[in-house]
Each structure stands twice: as structure tokens, then as C-alpha cells.
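Predict the 3D structure for this chain.
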Amino acid sequence: MRTTLTLDDDVAAALERLRREKDVSLKEVVNDTLRKGLQETGHGPRRGGKFRTRVLKTGRCLLPNLDCASRARAAAEGEDFR
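Done. Predicted structure below.
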């Protein structure tokens, strides 16, 4: 996400010092600092449980062989392919 942020002079100077110390981009310093501050307040990024994908049974494959992409495409589009 891209946004415009106005920083107080003291905050900008502290971030610039930190950026030089770590030799990283301002973006990295700002994101890391905000992330740490949010975690301290209990509002950090949500880390939910593992995401599970539901299995959907679609039946057997209608094509005899999917190894040849051009044949599979031709069959899917209804072209006569020989």
C-alpha cells in the first residue's frame, strides 16, 4: 500500500539515524518500527491459524493425457486436433 505520511522532525531524524545504522531503506525502517510499536500495543498484524483449502472432488479427468498442452487446449476449446 502506498500512502503519504507527514512525520514530526524529531521522528524523521530518529528514523534517519536508524536507517543509517542498519544500512537499509527508509521503507524498511518505517515498516519495522511501526510493526514493533503495533505489537507492543497488542494491535500487531493478525497471525491466524493455518489456512486450509477445502477439497473439491470434480470427478475423473475427461482428457486422456494432459502432458501435451496444445492437445489439452484444443480439446478444451473443441478444436479438432490431429
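The helical segments are 9-22, 26-40, 69-77.
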